[in-house]
Design goal:
The protein is α/β, with parallel strands linked by helices. 50% of the residues lie in helices and 10% in strands. The chain has 15 helices and 8 strands. An 8-stranded parallel β-sheet has the order 1-2-3-4-5-6-7-8. Helix 5 links the parallel strand 2 and strand 3. The longest helix is centred in the N-terminal third of the chain and has 21 residues. The radius of gyration is 19 Å and the shape is globular. 46% of the residues are buried. The chain binds manganese (II) ion. The site of manganese (II) ion has 6 residues, from strand 1.
């Protein structure tokens, strides 16, 4: 094998953050989507114990699992919803502390781990400083933001200083899903629809579309975004998004932007394969986006990593494409050493 398998959306948590989630979940006024998460995947049940242990482990157990499944490098990030459900002071502190833990793991295993720093959008000025610290002092390679923060999205001008800091530090933002925002979660609360099979992609895809349609990429022309799950549905819709945008411009319903929505998407976004092992969807992404915009991710410990590796090892692509998806694109996007 002439390439490394680099997996981009691999999760961890600290015990402090897990404890703080439990505290938030014990309050009566918790966001309805997060409450559902607290009743399912974040619940302290015997069934979740292995998941929880795997999230906490940034050492031997994780490395052994990587060796077993053929993952050479994990790009680590704080698992969803990270610190985004805490008050601003707690969130800012726990983001910084978890970034220290992450940076330490990367220092101990520099050939196996790469890190994406957590920030607390609740305190934008503090988040902007943390972006700079993560890039310059902690040796981290990008940022993780788990979609909405208290129902708000990054196109809101109050968050622009985070985008500005990310652009200045050349840190891509991995825009990771979470359950839909309080303003739209109600119909998702039935039948488990808030979760990763549907609601996560709707929420995160909406967030990405808000960034595109708000024009933030004209303001931050070097801002880069990574989307998981083969682009959260956007590659499927891309042509229609342009087509209906053009109609809306023609009838005066939305202002004309400098470029078409698809052009912003191709210029500013890359997508990963996390949670998606359908070769037809890979083919769709390759034809809509080009091989240079598709990266491998496995979503440890939530998915079967072996299945994800098997999927890309046997996907009907050329060896050069497989290498690009597994390694070359990740090295370019996150400046990972060769
Ligand atoms: Mn994930």
């Amino acid at each position: 094998m002439s390439y490394r398998r680099i997996a981009l959306e691999e999760a961890f948590v600290t015990q402090d953050i897990a404890d703080e989630w439990a505290k938030v979940l014990s309050h009566r006024n918790v966001e309805p989507g997060f409450r559902k998460m607290g009743e399912s995947i974040l619940a302290h049940t015997p069934g979740n114990q292995q998941l929880h242990n795997r999230l906490l482990d940034l050492g031997a157990g994780r490395l052994a699992h990587m060796d077993e499944t053929g993952i050479d490098v994990q790009v680590l990030s704080l698992t969803s919803p990270g610190v985004q459900v805490f008050d601003a002071v707690t969130a800012t502190r726990l983001a910084a502390e978890s970034n220290e833990v992450l940076a330490d793991a990367v220092r101990r295993h520099p050939t196996r781990f790469v890190g994406l720093a957590a920030v607390a959008p609740q305190y934008p000025a503090g988040a902007a400083l943390e972006v700079e610290r993560a890039a310059k002092r902690l040796g981290l390679s990008g940022l993780i933001i788990n979609s909405h923060t208290m129902g708000e999205y990054l196109d809101d001008p109050k968050y622009w200083e985070i985008l500005e800091a990310a652009e200045a530090a050349d840190m891509p933002i991995y825009l990771h899903p979470r359950e839909p925002a309080p303003s739209m979660v109600t119909p998702y609360l039935d039948y488990g629809l808030y979760f990763a099979g549907w609601g996560f992609a709707i929420e995160c895809g909406l967030h990405a579309m808000r960034l595109i349609m708000s024009g933030v990429f004209d303001r931050f022309p070097r801002l880069r975004i990574i989307l998981g799950h083969m682009g959260e549905g956007i590659p499927y819709w891309l042509k229609r998004i342009d087509n209906r945008y053009e109609l809306q411009v023609k009838i005066g319903a939305v202002p004309k932007m400098a470029r078409k929505p698809s052009e912003y998407f191709l210029e500013h976004f890359v997508v990963t394969t996390s949670g998606m092992t359908d070769p037809d969807i890979l083919k769709l992404c390759l034809s809509q986006l080009g091989v240079e915009r598709v990266l491998f991710a496995a979503d440890y410990p939530y998915e079967s990593i072996a299945e994800h590796v098997e999927f890309l090892d046997t996907a009907p692509v050329t060896e050069a494409e497989r290498r690009a998806i597994y390694e070359d694109n990740a090295c370019r996007v996150l400046k990972i050493a060769r």
